[in-house]
Amino acid sequence: MQFLRHPLLSPAPGTQRELVSLHYGQPGPSSAGKAYIQASLHGDELPGMLVAHHLRQQLGALDDAGQVCGDIVLVPMANPIGLSQFMLHAHLGRFELTTGENFNRHYPDQIATVAAAVEPQLGPDPAANVALLRRALKAAVLASPVETELQSQRRTLMGLSCDADIVLDLHCDAQAVMHLYTETPCWPDCEPLARFLGARLTLLAQDSGDNPFDEACSQVWWKWQQHFGGRFPIPQACLSATVELRGATDVSHELAADDARRIVDFLRWRGLIRGDRPALPEAMGDARPLAGSMPITAPKPGVLTFLKDVGSEVKAGDVLAHVIDPITAEVTELKSPVDGLFFARDFLRFANAGMRVAKVAGHEARRTGKLLGAR
């Protein structure tokens, strides 16, 4: 295993943060493929960090035994900026305090630059095209200018991940079931991952808006396909998924060790780890459009109490929660707008007017525009 340090741009004299990456197996052309896994891009989402702790133990043992035949890169903590942000003892790891930007948005786009650089060299061999595009993309990412610490963090993460076959971005919701986000072109390759992780739900979109990390890794391939208009064979060469590891307080060794084992099983199934290929598990859920994930909003402020647990199948009109005005004793019912899976809810129990407090995944696309909220 290689332990590498990646210094970030210093924001002020006397300060310096860094990212650390752990490298297992065999990088380069002889590799059986590359997987990139990172934890806690939102610095206050900690289940992924504990999963990474167990992954490094499991991958380390496999690497020492010579069983890692792919190139596996693990970033056990992907956001030192957000990890260090506290205010009045509250951890604020989702948005950078300097700019207010979400750490999981606004990753730079090198698609047109790379397309122009490599077009004269593209040909009829899909594998050769993928290798050429990956080399050019990595060079473009690493050469891109940065002016801030946040930009240098984004560039470092993209430089480590942009040439991978598999990208897993480990997150969590507030209170939720295990679920995934991926782009629609990735679903055929993501479906086995959902099975191995026991995901209840995978939410699909194509370019959901504001360029989150996972889409920045996967969208280059289908956008190059569109750019070149089918003149060159370019496969969807990256499966990138956001893995929502249940809720923010689901931080236990039992869950994390099991999640790490399931990820290792998937990597073995994909051929990056030697040994008997594990059987594909039964599906625990299905895929639904991200545009069918309906936010439940509190129209009035008050004490929030839920009547349904996450994981419940609900019908349109079912009451999911009450918002109670402590002064007037008025009770406002929050109802599901669709039939679907009640898959996530907030852990706060006082709702401001207009606050999104829960999500129900329906089967039909109903929303348009930017599909990912800031939260």
TrEMBL record:
Please give the coiled-coil regions recorded for this protein: none
Q: Quick one: signal sequence residues?
A: none
Q: Which domain of life is it from?
A: Bacteria
Q: Report whether Zinc shows up as a keyword of the record.
A: yes
Question: Keywords, A to Z?
Answer: Hydrolase, Metal-binding, Zinc
Chain segments annotated as transmembrane: none
- Succinylglutamate desuccinylase/Aspartoacylase catalytic domain location is 34-189
What is the protein named?
M14 family metallopeptidase
Record the organism. Answer: Pelomonas cellulosilytica
